[in-house]
Design brief:
single chain; 359 residues; alpha/beta; D-Maltodextrin-Binding Protein, domain 2; 2 domains; 17% strand; globular
């Protein structure tokens, strides 16, 4: 069974094909007929093409040309190159996590006009990326949760805390994401044992958190990059516990697999996709219109139902039922990734992390 959903990955586009993918929209731009929007590939892009873009066109009359964007390591340098020639490969692009911060540091994003996005008031400040001068450059589009997932046959009683990962009874039984910028286990450890992520703001604090994180290494059987490999092992009970995506685990459970997703008392990890616009994208009004459209409670509800993502607006503003809400999100305050910490300490964190998981 293939339930792995590609929203965390840029699927369907190889690095070799990336240049072609980003260069193609230039013809469309000349024609001036469509807003060019890039999102994560695979299921994710297909859902946007089927549900979100048609609703936007119906409401505004603005047509959309959809593209699957390649990996951030390809996109960010291409945005830098495009900015040097005062061009834009797309008009709006969805970025997640570290890529947003790296692009902002390079100055390759357009500063957006708050006044042209009245629905921005629906989004908490954490979903509004701003530069040092307060200029808006990123707007939250949607979120997803990483939670503590277990096989119900092997672990009948659901754990209630991330601290279960450190329990000696689970030695060599746990699966965790292999990359620090995807796993966010520094944030999980800091929140669970140090009262929050503020401790990550200093190198000394990072070292303390790493020391605690190393204690669970004997419990980890699989550091995974391929979601499907862990999902299969979880469903089979081969690896009975680990961190995984709340929505996909729910799909597996709905299909009858003995899989459970638990929002720990410390909160699930909430990662998000944000809309940004390349610095020299030209259809300014259309860009703002689209971002405003997706920032509405109605569109956020549509995204939850059709794409399976968590709203970035206050849940009380949506018309989602309690069952629909529990399928994609939680009322427990989330653990928010410290993207800034990773960007500032990228090489050191990566080196320390790799040494830890290979020990």
């Amino acid at each position: 069974m293939a339930l792995t959903i590609g929203r965390r990955k840029f699927l369907g586009v190889t690095a070799a094909a990336a240049a072609t993918t980003l260069a193609a929209p230039a013809i469309v731009k000349a024609a001036g007929s469509k807003l060019r929007i890039g999102t994560f590939g695979g299921y994710f892009e297909e859902s946007f093409e089927k549900f979100i873009y048609p609703a936007f066109t119906e409401k505004t009359g603005i047509e959309v040309q959809s593209f699957a964007t390649p990996v951030p390591s390809v996109v960010v340098p291409q945005l830098k190159t495009a900015a040097q020639t005062k061009t834009a490969p797309m008009d709006v692009i969805m970025f997640s996590g570290v890529a947003r911060a790296e692009g902002a540091k390079l100055g390759v994003y357009k500063t957006l006009d708050d006044k042209k996005i009245p629905n921005l008031s629906n989004l908490p400040e954490r979903f509004q990326d701003r530069d040092a001068e307060g200029g808006l450059y990123g707007v939250g589009a949607l979120s997803w949760f990483i939670t503590l997932c277990t096989n119900t046959d092997e672990i009948p009683e659901a754990p209630t805390s991330w601290s279960a990962l450190w329990d000696e009874q689970y030695k060599d039984q746990i699966g965790l994401l292999a990359l620090p910028q995807n796993a966010w286990m520094l944030e999980v450890t800091a929140t669970t044992f140090f009262g929050g992520t503020d401790i990550l703001s200093t190198r000394e604090g990072l070292e303390q958190v790493f020391d605690k994180l190393r204690e669970l290494v004997p419990n980890v059987r699989l550091w995974y990059r391929d979601e499907g490999s862990f999902q299969q092992a979880l469903q089979d009970g081969e690896i009975p516990m680990g961190q995984y995506y709340h929505d996909v685990a729910g799909l597996a459970a709905a299909e009858g697999f003995p899989v459970r997703s638990t929002m720990p008392k410390e909160g699930g990890v909430q990662d998000s996709g944000y809309w940004i616009s390349p610095k020299y994208a030209e259809p300014i009004d259309e860009i703002h219109e689209f971002i405003n459209f997706t920032s509405s409670p109605e569109t956020q509800s549509l995204l939850a139902r059709s794409v399976g993502t968590a709203p970035v607006v206050d849940l009380d503003l949506t018309d989602l039922t309690p069952e629909e809400i529990s399928a994609v999100t939680s009322t427990i305050p989330p653990i928010t990734p410290r993207y800034d910490v990773f960007v500032e300490n990228k090489d050191w964190i990566t080196e320390t992390w790799n040494e830890m998981i290979s020990s």
